[in-house]
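Quick check before the chapter quiz. The format below is the same one you will see on the exam, so make sure you can read both the input and the output lines.
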Amino acid sequence: MSDLGLGGLLIGGLVLLVLLGVHIGVALLAVGFFGVWLVRDNVDMAMRLLYMAAYNGIADYIFATIPLFVLMGLLVSISNVGKDTFTVAEFLLRKVRGGLGVATVAANTVFAAVTGVSIASAAVFTRVAVPEMVRHGYKTTFATGTVAGSSVLGMMIPPSLLMIIYGVLAEQSIGTLFIAGVIPGFMLAIVFAAMIMLMAKYTPGAVFDLQKEMALRRAQQVDITLTKLEMVSKLVPIAALVALVLGGLYTGFFTPTEAGGVGAAGALLIALMRRSLGQGNLWRVLHETGSVSCTILILLVAAAFYSRMLSVAGVPVAISELVRDAGLGPYGFLALYIGIVLLLGMILDSSSILLIMTPVAAPIAQAFGFNMIHFGVITVLAVEMGLLTPPFGISVFTVKSTLNDPKVSVESIFAGALPFVGAMFLVLLLVCAFPWLSLALT
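Here is the expected output.
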């Protein structure tokens, strides 16, 4: 069998195992072990490569970023920082048509800069923003779709767990990847906000329950009021944490690992000051940090083994030669790659897509002369669109389970998130066409 045929068999087998419900880590290890055994006809070599992947895969100091940023995000989440940020944004944008939708995006943007996990954003703002938006006459479909759509900012604006995973798999600087995500991340937030304001102005029926909104206007319902001192007190903790982490990374004063440590310490201080760690909350945060971190690290070990198997089998070289012989060129390959990632996003979660595709695509992209930092931003953007597309759409299901309202269907949340998928695709095209959008700050 040719290298290309073998590669197709192994990659197809991996996707099939995942679709059958096999855990992605187990599937990666099984396919990697079987692949090496099949190619070299040597079970001892497969065992040695597995040992090397298990040790070298997570031995580097940089892997400490994972538990540290996870801990920071969970501490911030439990301290009601997200709620405070939304309250201030709601007050500042109260006179803007569609202001609560824009406030959700704004609060999610700030929250993303300290969590790095889209699911956390979706869970927090489902509880905070959806009831408030519905109370002010917004359609439930729009409110839930806005929360699900804006939650993707958690993986684009640094720190981002997906960027850490990509950086490890593609052997790129995680700090540089974080900085590269700043402009595309904030551009995504601006496009989301602009889209909401345009929808509120030109298609108000898609945003508001018009009868309820009109009744609220007639009643001249009093919105929340905040003094300048109250606004400052609510924003100082999150602003200080963002400035500390991103400022340290951008100036080069911190390495990503050190930034994670400083950020976790700052988040712990905020949680202690707000007395948020009682009633077993501290233990729950530590337990969830360990659970999430161990899961990610095991996946990285499995992905390292899978990547070694692909190299031993010559799969990246064979696929690279096929793409070159087909005459697609760099941007033809990029279009094909994005299309595959978007299709996988409909059936697999974000981490699985990265773990499957990065070892295959990164060497080919490098051979075509792509800047691997730029390619990483494109990859994360494309992968994140899968959080909002059916039938998998993990952010949509997170909103549904957190809301726990039988009157709100999964289909309606997918419908509400659809405009955000379109906005993400627009930003993806811009980042592909203008590499400086991701490389200007690096």
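If your answer matched, good. Residues 262 and 289 are 16 Å apart (CA to CA).
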